[in-house]
């Protein structure tokens, strides 16, 4: 078994594999269509049918290759925030004609690059549609003008699919909950691809038929009723098959790129015996933020921590020095700390920017948080992996940590504090009060302090993509904390009875969100299984 490839090589190898595998269903669909569709054209010379068959076959595969390359270029594991088409065009113009050093607002360059990528994808999809339609349905067009008419309809078809692909966010890679072999994952998506292709081909047929009316008179041939009906039926079937190829390519691309990659040396090798975690940590720490290699590394880490398949790799985290364990916990908690800090910053600015009277007069559903502070919820999958990994490692340390590195390094307190702090930030964002019932009192009957932004009403209506993800993330964080509490309940209860709960399970410094007292307060609720 060869050693693991560098993170950037993983993406490159999967891209090349995708270009090879996508040609198989495209070839089968093209040959099936050409075999079942009779050709009535008279050959110009003896070998004309074979010559034109080869030309159409190559042009069809060129169209599929163009679409597949553009699809791989625009796809991302991190969902970029979408903007209106007008703003998208303005960002693209600014990217092309305005110098980068002219004092543009922060983040505008990144948005402009995203806009340029989407524009390139739309152009590639339109060109692919033109080539595919001419290759599949060019014979029924009736001469050069008829081929131009068919090509124009294919151009419209590709442009519509490109717009549909961009604004339905199909370019975002969705990682499956259960990792299956690629063949079975691909097979499960075929019925959905067929259904979607029927819908898209019907819409594209209607729209392109309307736009063809506005073409110049030279492109309208006078044909018999029978040939006109045959042309319409052939184009509808051809457009369906082109959409089916695109949908299957999209599904295959997602299956291949969301498959787990094992960042580890071969089991039994010298590297596996000495330092089996270095490849994974290098991918986690050195990959570009929100890139596909980073997502694959976090997926691999989550699978190691939660499952018993690679128990030898998880055991390597608890080596005697404790440095590996601290690095693993650090990469798990860093995204959650950044999320809590950013939400806290947005909530405090929301409070400071409005007077107390205006906050009281405003209904909870009218209050809104700045959209830039709610964008991190798009990274829900990454945050969930981080929370599950950190919680599973902490729970496993109760039985797997022979050297006590989790307790000695203070990682247990860091994990609990970060998870609770992030949960408080998310709950406050949703409009939930972070105060605790009066019966939970501290020493000398003094109630613990609450966060200064605990009563900020930033609840949104249950519509749109952000609010459901906030609820999903809160559930993931809450379940992660309960996982630790269930595994270490006896230790925590004993610490609470002796008054050292906060010493061993809560950090002494300032948390990313909330206060030290509030974290202890919330942890006691979890110990009583009353946090909801």
Total number of helical segments?
22
Structural class: mainly alpha
What percentage of the residues does DSSP assign to strands (E)? under 5%
Element string (H = helix, E = strand): HHHHHHHHHHHHHHHHHHHHHH
Gyration radius, rounded: 29 Å
Helix content: 55-70%
What general outline do the C-alpha atoms trace? elongated
- Distance between the first and last residues' Cα: 47 Å
Q: Sheet with the most strands?
A: none
Which parts are unreliable, with pLDDT below 50 for 5 consecutive residues or more?
354-368, 437-465
Total DSSP E strands: 0
Mean pLDDT: 81
Structural overview:
- With 532 residues, this protein is mostly helical.
- The protein has 22 helices and no strands.
- It has helices spanning 7-36, 48-74, 85-97, 108-137, 143-167, 182-188, 190-212, 225-257, 270-274, 278-286, 292-306, 311-317, 323-352, 356-361, 371-374, 380-400, 405-408, 411-429, 466-487, 489-498, 501-505, 516-527.
- Helix 16 runs parallel beside helix 19 (466-487) and helix 18 packs antiparallel against helix 19.
- The chain starts with 6 loop residues before the first helix and ends in a 5-residue tail after the last helix.
